[in-house]
Amino acid sequence: MPEEMGSRLPSRGQEPPDEDPRRRAPFSSSGTEVRVGIPHPGPDPSFRAALASRDFTLLWLGQFGSEVGNGLVQLALPLLVYAITGSAIQMAGAYIFQFLPWLLFGLLGGVLVDRWDRRITIVVVELVRAVAFLSVGIAFAIDSDILTVQMIYALIFMESSLQNFFNPARLALMPNLVKAEDLRAGNSLMEVSRHIGFLVAPSAGVALADYLGAATIIIIDGVTFAISGLTVFMIRWRQPKRIVERVEGWRQQLAQVYRETSEGITVIRTVRLLQVTILLGFALNLVVAPIQTLLPLYVFDVKEQPQAYFALLALTFIVGLLVGSLAAPAISKRAGLGKMTIGSVIVLGATISVAAYLPTLIVPIGALVVAGIAIGALNVGQMNMLQTSTTDEERGRVSAAYYSVTLGVRTAGYAVAGALVAPLGIQPLFVVFGVIVLCLGLFLIRVPEIRDHV
Fold it and tell me: Which domains does the chain show, CATH number per domain?
């Protein structure tokens, strides 16, 4: 990918440069450092206004296709490994290959995203994924014996590695495509597509793989990536040229990558809002994400209910996520982004603390809806804080650090939950996790950068 691309067109949604005494970004556009400041709440948020931006709509459609593609194979490929080998250990290895790239390449992806044209980065990533999945899927459909466990591992690892470029590039590109007052509505729509991809598509992928065959799912996944790449390619906005220091030799190049990575970490170390936002994402993914692994045990062992009740709980949680994501712009307009974030964390912690001991079968359903609303609103708030607290030149590295920390820690969270469920029990473990989240919410009240964020 080229290091200098695009024409010198102005960025939509960016405010004029302000005086920032922190530091000068390592890359500059036309010699000017551009900072996307914290926008005034302005007029009422409008999804119609966000979608009125043709470029944003194309990016949103691209992410929707990409998230659905990711979701379709998220469970289907590990289950395919199990079907081929009959080994739970081999299936666990597939999940390890899903998360390992976040730990290995997450920060590097951010450095390169800040160098490259982000639109072209997304297009290339999607086309590579499309070619890989279509090739494997077609070959598997022609000869079912051609697909090996090693090929599946490689496909999973490649797809997850490319996420280290797609996610930071997408998050960093968004503020260039919508007006500042429409950014929260845009992030809300992005979260809706992400939730559908992360929660709905995996189950659909397993069902379709069982009905249509694994080869068909892999081919469908490749098609979604191709469509995503095409829609993003159609975006008209062009990134201003970046002046990148050129060095010779691989030693100097490694030193430059290390320096730029350190500069990205320095940004986080000097901006408390970023520190707290990343800490929040880390903590929630460590103690909240693993709850999804405890929920089936809660349904089958504590409530002694069939799979239909688990499906109902999952459905109501998804409804809550979508409602919270869509309501976040309006709530943040009236209460402030910081107060919405703090309130969401406190409500989530309280709900988790009592959810496992709620009586009857109806009340836990309501608790899942409340938890989903809180998480949906919280995710929109975090995305806005990341985007509005960084310059355009550094946003890729900061976003990559966020994704590396939050997604990389999920594996540890699953391991912790699995290790504690036997000695503590399912219900007490819910309480422990809920109290941790509650304490985090109380801590946020004492952080003015979060509390006073409009």
Answer: 45-237 (1.20.1250.20), 271-454 (1.20.1250.20)
